[in-house]
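Technical note accompanying the year-one report. For the benefit of new consortium partners, we illustrate the data format agreed upon in the data management plan: each record pairs a sequence with a structure-token string. No post-processing was applied to the example shown here.
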Amino acid sequence: LCWHNLKPTRVGRKMFAIGGSENCAKLPGINLNAFKRFVYTVGDLCAGAASEIAVSGLDSALFTLAEGREMSAISAIVIGGAS
């Protein structure tokens, strides 16, 4: 869903602009603080929804749920190419 919305939408273009260079993103008039706040809020909401799904599937909350999967997450980000 995120990949699909990055290129063709205004939000995606602004995210790429800020990720490329914050100084260059200021020139066309992007409000950096407000947009960063928006992006982090949406990311937090997605993380919260994912945790709710994980908890509902297990019928309990375990603090050791993803223990040992740190390298999988890091390698997925490196291979996928986070901008």
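Partners are asked to follow this layout when depositing records. The two ends are 16 Å apart (CA to CA).
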